[in-house]
Amino acid sequence: MTAGRVEPDGVVEQRGTEGVVDLRPVVRVGAPTERRNPHSVDLDLMSTRDVLTVINDADRRVPAAVAAVLDEIAATVDLAVAALRGGHRVHYFGAGTSGRLGVIDAAELAPTFNSPGDWFCAHLAGGPDAMWRAVEDAEDDRRGGAADAAECVRAGDLVVGLAASGRTPYVLGALDAAREGDASTVLLCANPEAGAASSVDVFIGVDTGPEVVTGSTRMKAGTAQKLVLNTFSTAVMVRLGRVYSNLMIDMVATNAKLRGRMISILVEATGCSEEVSRGALHEADGDLKTALVSLVSGAGVSAARAALARSAHQVRGAIALLAS
Predict the structure, then answer these.
(1) How much is the pLDDT for 263?
(2) pTM, whole model, 2 decimals?
(3) Nearest Cα to 189, choosing from 175, 136, 147?
(4) What does the pLDDT look like over 128-150, one tens digit per residue?
(5) Could you tell me the pLDDT band of residue 23, with boundaries at 50, 70 and 90?
(6) 3-class DSSP state of 197
(7) CATH 3.40.50.10490 corresponds to the domain 246-323
(8) Beta-carbon-side half-sphere exposure of residue 302 (alpha carbons within 13 Å)
């Protein structure tokens, strides 16, 4: 006969009359992603085309679910912008699919927007090896999450916890430590009823419902997280002036495609010819922002560079300074 002890994070430790009989925790997960989807109960009996149709029909729900939490995403963007402008950082803490998507989002920002490499930091339960294989029990280590956060999170940073269920111990531990260290906290999950909602500054509970394959959060829940993270981090870069109009202007040309893209951006943004744009970029030593400000304002490269420095490298601010 066994007795159970329920921990605060929902883990149930099974004990027998002679002591602990199973050291592995048993988790009672009540997240929507763990419920059976009535539209896919015969999935293994369907034709290939019908399987794809069921998955596609389920995926259609995701954009609407993300649209329902745009206010919460906006609040998170504002927290991130304030943190980064104050010299602080944004951290993603996650496990499994959620953690891997956080790593991908953070990794794509520097190549896309030429952002400093330490602006967005991704932390994955189980470490780098967990990107490629399951690291046993790493996500259940609440103390490990707290220790990882305590080691790198500083007051003024923003910590975004990524957990499909909303109850992953590693993530909750990181959020606990972040709060204790005076960092702002956000929880992004696919469980609108997550118990941790009240303990963070912003809660983003995307209602994606049961998965086509029960519990496979790499599906709708993962798609929703990918959309939210892309939306969030892109909006942060826009707010920080790394986009002009709808054009990427903070990029480094490391190959022929990107060098051509820089010229195309100057042509689109200024209406100048390709020849003039190429000449301005050459005069600006390959600095796209400087060339853009110079062409739009009519000022020389030196004046454009100085105006950018005075306006915290905001293109519209620099153009306004030169027009005044």
Answers:
(1) 94
(2) 0.85
(3) 175
(4) 888 888 876 888 899 999 999 99
(5) low
(6) helix
(7) no
(8) 0
Q: Is 139 a catalytic residue?
A: yes
Of 230, 223, 227, 255, nearest to 109 by C-alpha is 230
Residue 54 exposure: Cα atoms within 13 Å on the Cβ side:
19
Bridge partners of 120, per DSSP, are: 90
Residue 304 in this model has a pLDDT that exceeds 60: yes
Supply angle C-alpha 70, 112, 75, rounded to 5.
Answer: 20
108 is catalytic: yes
Q: Which residues pair with 15 in a beta bridge?
A: 3, 20
Domain boundaries along the sequence of the chain? 1-28, 61-239, 246-323
Residue 236 has, within 13 A of its CA and on its CB side, a CA count of 30
d(CA 15, CA 20): 4
pLDDT at residue 254, rounded to an integer: 79
Q: What does CATH list as the number for 61-239?
A: 3.40.50.10490
Give the DSSP letter of residue 140. G
Q: How many residues does the chain have?
A: 324
The first and second tokens of residue 161, run together, are 């916890």
Question: Which member of 7, 13, 72, 108 is catalytic?
Answer: 108
Residue 117 structure tokens = 């490499």
